[in-house]
Write a structure and sequence with these properties.
The protein is mainly alpha-helical. The chain contains four helices and two strands; from the N terminus they run H-E-H-H-E-H. It has one domain. A two-stranded parallel ribbon has the order 1-2. It is flat and about 50 Å long. It comes from Pseudomonas veronii.
């Protein structure tokens, strides 16, 4: 039953097109240094899949998460602000 509920929720989520997706890209060394309790091979697989995700055709902003945290946050804020500005000018 839990599996069916999870599948239903996943289908519901994927039916919605986000306004923007912030894709945090990371290399395997950085990922493993941040998640040492994860298997190296599992992290490699996740990293290889992320660029293939399309998010229902939503615009994707790629952010290099190997950069310092302050820079990553700044880029994310700028991307979200640009989307919000579009709503302000449209309304």
């Amino acid at each position: 039953m839990l599996m069916r509920l999870e599948l239903w929720l996943y289908k519901k989520m994927t039916a919605v097109r986000p306004d923007v997706v912030l894709r945090l890209n990371v290399d395997i060394e950085t990922a493993f240094s941040r998640k040492p309790d994860h298997r190296y091979e599992a992290l490699e697989k996740k990293i290889s899949i992320v660029p293939k995700l399309s998010f229902n055709g939503a615009p994707i902003i790629d952010i290099d998460s190997t950069e310092p945290l302050e820079k990553v946050i700044e880029q994310a804020r700028e991307a979200v602000a640009a989307v919000m500005d579009c709503y302000k000018t449209a309304g």
